[in-house]
Amino acid sequence: MRHATSRRIGPIGFRIGSDWRAPVALLDALYADYPVPTVADATVRLTATRPWRRRVRPAIALGGDLMLPDAAPLPLEHGLLAAEMAMNLQVALGHRRHLLLHAAAAERDGRCVILTGESGAGKSTLSALLMAAGWRFLGDEFVLIDLASGMARPFPRLVSLKNESVAELARRMPGARFGPVLQGTPKGTIRHLVPDARAVAAMDVPATPALLLFPRFGAARAVRRVDEGEAFVRLTQASTNYALLGEAGFDALTRLVTRVPARAIDYADSDEGVTLVEDLWCAL
Amino acid sequence: MRAIERLTELLAHPTGPVPDDAWTALLCVARAEQLSGALAHRLAGVAVPAPVAPLLAEARGAAAEQRRAALFEAEMARRALAPLGVPVLLLKGTAYVAAGLSAGRGRAIGDLDVLVPREALGAVEAALRAAGWRDVKDDGYDDAYYRRWMHELPPLVHPARDRLIDVHHTILPPTARIAPDAAALVAGAVPLRDGLFVLSPEDMVVHAALHLLADGDLAGGLRNLFDIDRLLREFADADEDFWLKLTARVAEHGAGAPVARAARLAHALFGTPVPGEWRAPAPGDGVFRRRLLARDDWGREDRAATRLAFYVRSHAIRMPPALLARHLAIKGWKRWRGRRGKDRARS
Predict the structure, then answer these.
(1) How far, in Å, CA of B211 to CA of B221, rounded?
(2) How far is A35 from chain B (nearest CA, A)?
């Protein structure tokens, strides 16, 4: 590979190779405070879709140890997004040392709230705002549940902000570091936010799950209890490796839903969302 | 040294030295060749750097899960087919784990491959469909092609478990130059405790060698060659007459050339103990070796010209030229029509 870098995010080491300098330079700048792994778990490759597409209308083919067969190529301007997508995919398809939940999480006093839901539910925005409000950011894409202890391991990759939250978070977090604004991506406008120094420094410190939330953005404020059975089923859908882990996955998920209270929350705007999370947290 | 060469050396000699900075590429290449589970098993109990240990444990865990799923799938097929009273032989990875062979240790297993007597094909297919298996794709030409020219039924999928089954009636396409004796494969089958069967040791080696060298373009072939290494070692250890029996059996199937080449390649790449008379190098071995090791340290296939040559060869050995021309013409036309259809839909 012409250009390469390595970074460790939480317990997962990545090796990223690229035909172009730009995506690697951007990763090096934004992940500057993250450690370099001695051995990478996963390899990611950003290569030209055809040899000439390195220079002419450069197009990135996502590659790596594991890949979906029909991943669409991205233009070079979206190189950072390509890298993040490919890195996420290695975790989603390959990581088995923990139960993976497609979720965001934030920690306070050693305990954490886990927010899970479909894309658009507000995971990234809420976890970034909780970080701004003094919580320790654990991640906005995956929460890794330790199969033996049930603790949540942080995976504090760059926060992927989309569409309306791009401008809102820039306004609310003037001191924060951001990546470039990526317009016209398959997911709309995207901008990456660098987690604060505390989140990066403590990325090997796990937290005890204490509250499980299923947020839904855009509806009037409402809170509903979610029983163990429903939480279990929803989390099997939110986990990319539940089935792969077999019995160990079942045990970890059962323990999580029987020990941690769960609520479905609806919120109309992000202020309300943060207030709701704080209220529920204080009522624990 | 290329990571892929290091991988073959480490599979043969797990205690060999590995520089600390070689592990990332080694694990990447092992994953790409579907050999990470096998490597992790070979390295069990060997001192490795601290960050490597959990990755190997993870690979062993993944292989254990694949083993469990493969055996479960075999049991589902057994239940569906038991009333027919025909012998059902497990093939490849599922056979290795079901028979408790060392080739199954850490092996990646995808589809379920079984072999049944040709005359039972219709009943087997009907029983599988009755038990929930369905067509993977609805394509008249592919379906007809499989049934007319292939050594297996079109693949069937069980939607609830999302697992494929390939039902074979022999181990090479009937159009190939070599015609193994399918009835002898069934007659020589070894029963397992649950009523399923596996091939005899000699036939297992013949099948592995034909699968690697007489069918397909050797993509992912390193894993298949490592199977052969494991099988040869285990069978020769258990039976001092194994090589004699293999020689006789290979002649019955007319599979002398591919089995001999497989043994030589296994000896060359994995140090498989092979009798002297099997070891004399033959022209072409170097090209096969070059093809098997065609992967760079980032896990990408390289040596494009060599791979292309083997791709062309895979078609040439699969069927006679006229049939091949007809097949490629139909495939090409369908593809072109498919693309045009897509373009039209787009515009």
Answers:
(1) 9
(2) 14
Count CB-CB contacts under 10 A for residue A183: 12
Task: Identify the CA nearest to B94 among candidates B75, B81, B80.
Answer: B75
ipTM of the complex: 0.90
| Cross-chain Cβ contact A15/B32 below 8 Å | no
The verdict on a CB contact (< 8 Å) between B24 and A43 is: yes
The residue with tokens 């390939």 is B166
Query: Could A43 and B52 be called an inter-chain contact, meaning their C-beta atoms sit closer than 8 Å?
Result: no
Q: What percent of chain A has pLDDT over 90?
A: 87
3-state secondary structure of A205: coil
Structure tokens at B133: 């298996």
CB contact under 8 A, B299 and A45: yes
Decide: A169 and A128 in contact? Cβ < 8 Å.
Answer: yes
**Per the CB < 8 Å rule, is A97 touching B299?**
no
pLDDT in tens, A152-182: 999 999 999 999 999 999 999 999 999 999 9
Chain A nearest C-alpha distance from B245 (Å): 41
Report the number of distinct structural domains present in chain B. Answer: 1
Strands (E), B51-179: 89-90, 112-115, 134-135, 156-158, 163-168
Q: Give the number of other Cβ atoms within 10 Å of residue A284's Cβ.
A: 10
Q: In terms of residue numbers, what domain contains B168?
A: 3-346
In whole angstroms, give the CA distance from residue B237 to residue B260: 19
| Measured CA distances, B345 to B337, B338, B340 (Å) | 12, 11, 9
Structure-derived torsion over alpha carbons of residues A160, A164, A169, A170, reported in degrees to the nearest 10: 100
In chain A, the domains with their CATH numbers are 3-94 (no CATH), 98-282 (3.40.50)
Q: What angle do CA B3, B7, B11 make, to 5 degrees?
A: 170
- CATH number for the domain spanning B97: value is 3.30.460.40
How far, in Å, are A23, A25, A88, A138, A153 from residue A232 at the CA level?
A: 38, 41, 23, 22, 19
Chain B residues lying within 8 Å of A244, measured CB to CB: 62, 65
Low-confidence ranges of chain B (pLDDT < 70): 339-347
Compute the distance between CA of residue B1 and CA of residue A93 in angstroms, rounded to an integer: 29
